[in-house]
Specification:
Layout lengths: L3 H11 L3 H10 L4 H10 L7 H14 L2 H11 L9 H12 L9
Length: 105
């Protein structure tokens, strides 16, 4: 099951459809640490802004630009044929949010 926070983040940050969000989750290299951090970020009982920011910063370390692009390429590989526009647009958005060293800006 795809975590709700993942779907919301993919939709709001990258303009993904729910379908693409689910597909990315299906192939993303999910770890127990990522699942734990997603749950922590989605905790509605935390009201301290510093804690919320710290949790999302940690989450951004676990969801890397390269892993997102690799996941997209698993779903829609570059085969020399035209690729889905939504995958190309998603990858372009990821790249625009990535610095020259491959980290989030």
């Amino acid at each position: 099951m795809t975590p709700a926070l993942w779907i919301i983040a993919m939709r709001k940050i990258f303009g993904c459809t729910d379908r693409l969000s689910h597909d990315l989750w299906r192939v993303y290299p999910v770890t127990s640490t990522l699942l734990f951090q997603l749950a922590r970020c989605g905790d509605p009982d935390v009201n301290d802004e510093a804690i919320i920011v710290a949790r999302f910063e940690r989450l951004s370390e676990l969801v890397t630009p390269s892993a997102l692009i690799e996941s997209s390429l698993q779903i829609a590989p570059e085969t020399g044929k035209p690729r889905s526009r939504q995958h190309v647009a998603f990858e372009e958005k990821v790249m625009r949010k990535t610095d020259a060293c491959g980290r989030w800006k």
